Amino acid sequence: MTGRSGIICAGNWIIDLVHDIEHWPAESDLVRIGQQTRSMGGGAANVVAALAKLETGLPLWPMGAVGDDEFGAFVRTQCQALGLPTSQLLAKAGVATAHTHVMSVAGRSRTFFYQGGANDALRFEDFPTGTFSTTQARIFYLGYLTLLAQLDAVDVSGMTDAARVLQRARKAGLITCVDLVSGQHPDFRRIVEIAAPHIDYLILNETEAARATGFDGSAESLADLLNNPATLRKMADLLIGKGIGQAVVVHCPKFALWVGADGSRHQADVTPLSKDQIVSHLGAGDAFGAGLLFALHEGWSQENALALGNMAAGASLKGITANSAIPPLSTLSNQ
Predict the structure, then answer these.
(1) Neighbours of 298 (CB within 10 A)
(2) Sorting pLDDT into bands at 50, 70 and 90, what band is 108?
(3) What is the phi/psi pair of residue 203, to 5°?
(4) What is the mean pLDDT of residues 240-251?
(5) Which residue, 189, 265, 199, is CA-closest to 233?
(6) Mean pLDDT (whole number) for 209-222
(7) 189 Cβ contact partners less than 8 Å away, ≥ 6 residues apart
(8) Which are the contacts of 184, defined by CB distance < 8 A and separation ≥ 6?
(9) Cβ proximity of 326 and 283 under 8 Å
(10) Distance of CA 229 to CAs 134, 139, 187, 262, 309, Å?
(11) How far apart are CA 107 and CA 111, in angstroms?
(12) pLDDT digit string (tens) for 55-93?
């Protein structure tokens, strides 16, 4: 890793159209929309933007696909405003930029209505050999696995293009980090297992951990995981057994867990925020991932890595968009 520096953030680029609503309506009912906000979102977008907002000084490279449309132009403008290069953001002709209508209830959760657009059109061929053989980056992040239709598709050989991209990045000497999304996918578990041998660090929440390991519980039993970190550690161990190279990191509202392939274990509890401090949950998991990636890049201990991830996530909760409230790293601990 000598001489390498910086993080490539590849995967989902989405326009989030955030609608602030008073409550979730019953079927056929009407609910008023208060504030409406347009922002850049998605795994790659949120993580690279959070890293830019942290002002760490690391080289950052956005990578992925947008449409040749107004939303695609908006993504490029947002990246440029953050001082990020856009040369590796492909414009897919005739395909819409992915976008999501986000219904956000203050102090509670959010619901997504998603159109995959250019994210679904991202292919293995969009990551040619030179993408990794010529880069000086230290880390390759891919998010979200299971929300990239062509990359996630399992072929007749039992492989996915996402696994091949990760394999190529690793072969070039990069650390591979992967994040998941809390969506329903019929091949969720299989997609993760196929990619696992090519992943150094897997980042996921409690719901994603359950789906990735075949846990078929009710909403109540899933909620119980938040009070039972031992079960989550067992799930992480199952994923380690599928080939994760370094660690599985699980982030939850109450705590974060590090389960290392070397047998290391660590839990970092979250300092709770009051309801009036939480503006939106949108992107908090991605902010956690951004903090974790920086710590991994710098070789921090697992304890400090989890602590930084929790602080970044906590800062994110205070803003209407995923990254609007994230401060520079130098002042993050004071937030």
Answers:
(1) 13
(2) confident
(3) -115, 130
(4) 98
(5) 265
(6) 79
(7) 211, 212, 213, 214
(8) none
(9) no
(10) 41, 28, 25, 19, 18
(11) 13
(12) 999 999 999 999 999 999 999 999 999 999 999 999 999
Strand residue runs (E) in 22-145: 33-41, 60-67, 89-92, 99-105, 110-115, 139-145
Give yes or no for a contact between 277 and 235, defined as CB atoms under 8 angstroms apart: no
Beta strands per DSSP E along 106-151: 110-115, 139-145
Q: Is the peptide bond before 144 cis (omega within 30 degrees of 0)?
A: yes
Q: Is the pTM of this model over 0.70?
A: yes
- 49, 139, 169, 321 from 7: Cα distances, Å: 12, 5, 12, 22
Residue 174 φ/ψ region, left for φ over 0, alpha for ψ in the -120 to 50 degree band, beta for the rest: beta
What is the reported pLDDT for 1?
A: 45
> How many other CB atoms sit within 10 Å of the CB of residue 23?
10
Q: Is 111 helix (H, G, I), strand (E, B) or coil?
A: strand
Q: Which amino acid is at 48?
A: V
Polymer length of the chain:
335
Tokens matching residue 154: 């399992």
